[in-house]
Each structure stands twice: as structure tokens, then as C-alpha cells.
Amino acid sequence: MPHASNPGVTPEYWDEACRHLAKRDRVMKKLIPQFGEARLESRGDAFTTLARSIVGQQISVKAAQSVWEKFAGAVGGPSHALVPADVLSLEVPELRAVGLSARKAEYLRDLARHFEEGSVHVPLWRQMDDEAIIEELVAIRGIGRWTAEMFLIFYLMRPNVLPLDDEGLMKGISSCYFSGEPVSRAEARELGEGWAPYRSVATWYLWRSLDPLPVDY
């Protein structure tokens, strides 16, 4: 089971996963060495990671960072850990004043409420399976399956997530395996079966094939 997430933590299984994928998949055998020692890193805490994912929905990375900094400043300063109670202390108009839409402001307050009331079982996540965590997270307004899967990969560093709703993954599969032809979910799922139990790692390298800078959520 992956370790809980501290800034800069990388998965213990990574080297074993790379050997497994290189042995079983010709594309991975060529792709993995291109990125040297780069690997998945987990940063931040659970609440901050999910809050950032809500702030960043449907806007550019640059715009998301700008809004995030203003938001973090309003709830205690960018250098402090985000605390659910501090978010709940701000009403929707105050959150909108930092550049959040009314909907995102409501989503952030709902997220904070779930954490503050203990309706998400953070201490138990390491023992829960992926689908149980996804079910818990998608009950929070503003968090869909894709966001929950990104959380599993980037925060909990679960090794075997295949995010079929992810545009980058589908583009990477198309480019590396299908000569740029469109790929169906069924084809992607079948290909992913060959990567188990390290589908998250294969996904990460396919993202790298499109953008050499490591993804970070």
C-alpha cells in the first residue's frame, strides 16, 4: 500500500513498476528511459489537494494559480496549510471577491464542510480500496470521477488507476499505440489491462510523452 503523502514523496513501487512495464510492453520499454529519474511526486495535504482541483476546473493553469494565491491569502496566507474551518469562516461573496465563481465558492465550502464534519474518512483511506474512496469523494459537490482519480494518483499514489476520462491519457495512447488514430474507451481499457497492476505508472509516462514536465496536482 502506498505511503501517506508528504511533500516530495515518491512511490516505493516505482522502480519495480518500470521493470514490469518495460518487460511486458514494447512502447513502455522505449518510453520509460527517456525520462531518467523523473517520477510521480505527492505534495500537499488531502484537503489542499482537493481544493486546488476545484479552483483549477475549466480555467488555465496560469489563471488557476492566480486565483489560488488570492484564495489562500484570504484564508490565512499562502504559506499556511489550508484549514477547512477557515474556508467555512468565509461566505460566498467573500470567496467570490478573490476571483472564484459562485459555483466554485459553494463547492469549496461543501468540501470544507465534509472535512470539518468528518464525513470523509481520511485516516481510513490507506486501508480502503480505490472505488470506495472514489465513491466517498464524488459525494462532494464539484468533485467528479476524474478529480477523484487524479487524487488517487497524485495524493494517495495508488499504483493501478486508469483514468479513462482523462484527455491526456487518451491522446498519449492514440499517439504512442495507434499512430494518432482516435481511440475508444474499450480499446484504452483493454490496453490498460496489460499494464496492471501499475496502470497509474503507465498513465504517468504517457502524460510525459505529451509534456516532458512532470504533472503535479
Overview features:
217 residues; mainly alpha; Endonuclease Iii, domain 2; Endonuclease III, domain 1; 2 domains; 12 helices; 0% strand; disordered N terminus
Mean pLDDT: 90
What helical percentage do the residues reach? 40-55%
Task: Indicate the CATH architecture of the largest domain.
Answer: Orthogonal Bundle
The largest sheet, given as strand count, sense and whether it forms a barrel, is: none
The secondary-structure element order is HHHHHHHHHHHH
| Silhouette | elongated
What would your notes on this structure say?
By secondary structure, the chain is mainly alpha-helical. It has 2 domains: 14-42 and 160-210, Endonuclease Iii, domain 2 (Orthogonal Bundle), CATH 1.10.1670.40; 46-154, Endonuclease III, domain 1 (Orthogonal Bundle). It has 12 helices and no strands. The chain has helices spanning 14-24, 26-31, 46-55, 61-74, 84-88, 92-96, 102-117, 130-138, 145-154, 167-177, 185-193, 199-210. It is elongated. The two termini are 20 Å apart. Mean pLDDT is 90; it is low at 1-6. Its EC number is 3.2.2.21. Keywords: DNA damage, DNA repair. It is an enzyme of class 3 (hydrolase).
Short note summarizing the structure:
This is DNA-3-methyladenine glycosylase II. 54% of the residues lie in helices and 0% in strands. It is mainly α and 217 residues long.
Topology record:
Blueprint (H helix, E strand, L loop, with lengths): L13 H11 L1 H6 L14 H10 L5 H14 L9 H5 L3 H5 L5 H16 L12 H9 L6 H10 L12 H11 L7 H9 L5 H12 L7
